[in-house]
Amino acid sequence: MEERCLLLCQVRLITPIVEDSNMYEITCEGQEYLDRKLDVENRPTPSPQALQG
What superkingdom does the record give (predicted)? Predict the structure, then answer.
């Protein structure tokens, strides 16, 4: 679950509530995505390799 959250943070769909926190909140862009109003074709693709450090 933590890796999934980090990937969603990379594409700015969620953000930590407090820096270095395990609690996240959805961003405006994340809500637009859920409402199907955000075109993800032009969004960056999350990179699992970036999580490895």
Answer: Archaea
pLDDT band at 53 (very low <50, low <70, confident <90, very high): low
Q: How many Å apart are CA 10 and CA 47, to the nearest integer?
A: 8
Q: How far apart are CA 31 and CA 20, in angstroms?
A: 22
First to last CA, the chain: 18
3-state secondary structure of 20: coil
Residue 13: its pLDDT value, please? Answer: 94
Does the structure show a pLDDT above 80 at 1?
Answer: no
